[in-house]
Every structure is written in C-alpha cells, then in structure tokens.
Design goal:
Elements: H1 3-15, H2 21-29, H3 34-42, H4 57-69, E1 73-75, E2 82-84, H5 89-98, H6 107-110, H7 114-132, H8 145-157, H9 165-176, H10 185-188, H11 201-208, H12 212-232, H13 238-241, H14 255-265, H15 270-277, H16 281-294, H17 306-318, H18 324-330, H19 336-346
Antiparallel strand pairs: 1-2
Helix pairs in contact: 3-16, 7-8, 7-9, 11-12, 14-16, 15-16, 16-19, 17-19
C-alpha cells in the first residue's frame, strides 16, 4: 500500500460517496474551481489541497483500479462514486497509524507561497555556504532568474558581513525546524552547500527507506511548518521572512473572486456585477460561495432568508449529507445557490 493510496482512501472516507472520484483528483491537484474550493471546506480537506499537483488522471485512475482490485473500495449508491468497504474501516484506521498525515500540513493556506519559499530558501542556503567558503564560481541550484535577482538584492540589503550570512541563516533554520514529532533531516538532505549536493526527492525517499509519496508530503509539511512559524514570529526570523512572497490580501481568494468582492464592497448587486464583469450569473454565484467559505464574517442574509437558512441547516444535519441534490429533494423551493452558500457558511461543521 502506497501513501498516495492511503490519501485517496482518506478523501473517499471524508466525501462518503457524495462526489465523483475525480473530485479527489481535483483536490490533490489543487484545482481552483468553485466546486473544489467548496469541497475542501465542507469535507475538511483543506490540509491536503494541492499536495500532489503533478498527479495525472491516468495515474489517478491506476490508483482507483488498484484499490478496487484489493477490495478496499466499491461503487457507491450514485454509481459515479466510490466508498470504502465497511469491513475495511478498521484496517484503514491501522493504515493511518502506520502512515499518519503530517500534522503541520496546510495546503490551502500556503499553496500560493510554498514553491517560491522553497526556491528562495534552497538558493539562499547554497549562496550562504559558498560565501562562507569564499567561493564565487558555482552553478546555482535555482535557474529561475526572478529568484536569482531576489538573492542578489537580499545580499545587498544584508546589514552585516556577507560571510556571516551562513551563520545567521543556520541559526534561524535550526530554530524554525525545532518542533516535536518532525524530522528536519527530510528537508536538510535536500539542501545544496559548498561541500555537498542536495538529494532529489527520489534519492531522499530511498535514503530514508520510505514511500516516495509519503516523503513528498512530509517534506511539504516541513515547509508549511516553517511558513507558519516565520509568519507568526516575524521578528525571530528576519532572513527567512525575506523569503516569503508577500500577499496583500487578507483572505485566500482566486483573482476573479477578488474582483467580484471589490464590486460587492462598492454596493453592487449580483445582477450588476454580472453585467459589469460580463460573466454568467452562475459564475458570480460561485464567487459568493467562495467568499462565504473564506471570509468568516461574510453575511449571506442578502442572498437567502433566515428561515430558509434554518430549514436547509436542519435538513443537512438530519440526513447527515452535504449533497445538494439530496437537500434539494427535501426542500424543493430552495435554489441550489441558496443550499450551496448555507453549506458553505456551515463550513463542514454539521454534527
């Protein structure tokens, strides 16, 4: 059993047959569609959003086929989804003990800044190490010219002697990775210095004798841990803070939704926004659902009555389902848009 198979089972268990199998692929790929964004909130899968961005549909189909052959899953009631076999539930719990999902993983929160942070960190470590050795000629580990330009500017801004950058950076890195239950070596082994070349993900997984997909997620979790610490304690990590791409938005929103939100703040109705932006009303409704999911105090009173909110909430809890179709069948006079934003407001918190 590979770890990515465990992750797919984990998603299927959370979704409980209420979405097609490809909703899982979209979550792992990090697809920024309205449906996927709503799914990760409702089914509490934000942590694993965009954890496997390169997973292809063909490889995903192979994982599903493998799980079927091993009798881990079977077709759900809808005929378009899969659920875990009831008799496999205890075995699945044992798998999660063997392959625990890394505690600091937070894909939805950090997906926009993780890659840039790693590129800057890995280059900074290499440059600092080479400077400490007095070396000026070497092949940079990052070919991205934007990252290289950032490194040159950072060196100009560094207030002390450049040769001391290595010492300061080491201190910050050591403190940032000091946390109970994590394995800093999963990240350290990837770094290139003056005297050694960092390992590839495949080499690292082989070195630690663990599944490659599990190593990838542990590595990602370490980066998320660092981002969390640096952003929460900026004064303690001045150099590492420079490596994080600044984001001027207070909330995690897609660019199109940001544009809609600006118009809402100006007092525009949904119809006016649809006309101004020349977008279908269904697209604007997608934006509203995204706003509800990501802005805690975003009010839905303008879009659905309080009485209908109460009705939808009660039905969703009574039938223990987040399926729009099932709720609609119970409450025909509610629109799908109204059901969506009420579920979004609940945020998966139904009990």
């Amino acid at each position: 059993m590979t770890f990515i198979e465990v992750i797919v089972l984990y998603c299927l268990q959370r979704i409980k047959g209420e979405r097609t199998i490809y909703s899982v692929l979209h979550i792992l790929n990090g697809k920024k569609s309205a449906q996927t964004i709503q799914d990760i909130h409702i089914f509490k899968l934000k942590a694993i959003f965009q954890t496997f961005p390169s997973l292809s549909r063909a490889n995903f189909d192979g994982i599903i086929l493998s799980l079927k052959k091993k009798a881990w899953i079977h077709v759900g009631e809808s005929g378009q989804s899969f659920v875990i076999h009831p008799e496999k539930e205890d075995s699945f719990k044992e798998l999660l003990i063997e392959y625990p999902i890394p505690a600091h993983l937070n894909g939805w929160k950090y997906h926009r800044i993780t890659v840039g942070f790693w590129e800057r960190l890995s280059l900074a470590i290499q440059v600092a190490s080479q400077l400490a050795k007095g070396n000026n000629r070497y092949m940079p580990v990052q070919r991205n010219i934007v990252v290289q330009a950032w490194m040159k500017q950072t060196l100009q801004d560094f207030p002390t002697e450049r040769q001391k950058l290595n010492e300061h950076l080491f201190q910050e890195l050591a403190e940032c990775l000091e946390d109970e239950g994590v394995y800093p070596e999963y990240l350290i082994c990837r770094l290139t210095g003056a005297d050694h070349i960092g390992l590839t993900p495949e080499q690292a997984a082989d070195n630690f004798r663990i599944d490659l997909s599990y190593y990838d997620m542990c590595f990602l979790s370490l980066l998320h841990l660092m981002l969390q610490k640096v952003l929460d304690q900026e004064g303690d990590f001045p150099i590492l803070r420079k490596m994080i791409l600044d984001d001027d938005s207070d909330f995690i929103l897609t660019n199109s939704t940001k544009a809609t939100y600006k118009l809402i703040l100006q007092g525009c109705s949904l119809e006016e926004i649809s006309n101004i932006r020349r977008l279908k009303m269904s697209t604007i409704e997608d934006h509203i659902a995204e706003l509800v999911l990501n802005i805690p105090d975003f009010s839905i009173e303008e879009y659905v009555s309080k009485s209908k909110v109460a009705e939808i909430t009660k039905i969703a809890r009574d039938i223990a389902s987040k399926s729009l179709k099932q709720i609609k069948q119970q409450l025909p006079d509610a629109t799908y848009f109204e059901i969506r934003i009420v579920l979004a407001k609940l945020g998966g918190g139904m009990k």
